[in-house]
Specification:
Elements: H1 5-37, E1 42-46, H2 52-69, E2 75-78, E3 82-84, E4 87-90, E5 96-99, E6 102-104, E7 108-111, H3 115-128, E8 132-136, H4 141-146, E9 162-166, E10 172-176
């Protein structure tokens, strides 16, 4: 199939060109989601003064405990089928055709009946450790531009003037607007 360097280049080059072009198009939705995430509130478990790494370890430990207490129990379900009755369709010449009735199958979906219980067990575990769930709004652009780039390493006290700056690497900074 590939005889000599010219044949190999003619096969490989177009493929790479398509891959590179395709990758650019795939990255656009990722960039859009990243930009959108920077506008959404940050929901975390909070306990003033605790290191962020400690909070993350506690959250992971509680998530594992919750998973053990209420394991994933995926169930496959289906919505009921729907009957579409027969109907008559006529054209402009008055010729009519009867389209027979038919069944539309129900949609198949999955559900985890333990998901709610698992979330409650995790919330209870974190509460037992002194954390409370909080949702911190995104900082306005002016605050974001004025603040030094520095991810939070310790959870500060939260006030009504607190807001969050999200960074591309997944880290965040909680600041208090002046």
């Amino acid at each position: 199939m590939a005889e000599g360097p010219g044949a190999v280049k003619s096969i490989v080059s177009p493929l790479r060109a398509r891959q590179n072009g395709g990758m650019k198009h795939r990255l656009l939705p990722v960039a859009a989601l990243t930009a959108l995430a920077s506008c959404t509130p940050l929901t975390i478990y909070h306990k003033t003064g605790v290191e962020v790494t400690r909070m993350e370890r506690d959250r992971t430990d509680c998530a594992v405990r919750a998973l053990n207490a209420a394991p994933v129990a995926t169930q496959v379900r289906q919505t009921p089928p729907t009957f579409i009755p027969a109907r008559q369709v006529c054209n402009s010449a008055g010729v009519c055709t009867v389209i027979p009735g038919y069944w539309e199958p129900g949609q198949i979906y999955t559900v985890d009946p333990n998901a709610g219980l698992r979330a409650r067990v995790q919330d209870q575990c974190m509460a037992d450790r002194g954390y409370a769930p909080v949702s911190i709004p995104a900082c306005p652009a002016g605050v974001r531009n004025a603040a030094p780039v520095q991810a939070s390493t310790r959870l500060p006290a939260i006030t009504p003037r607190s807001c969050v700056i999200r960074y591309d690497d997944g880290s965040w900074q909680i600041v208090t607007r002046g």
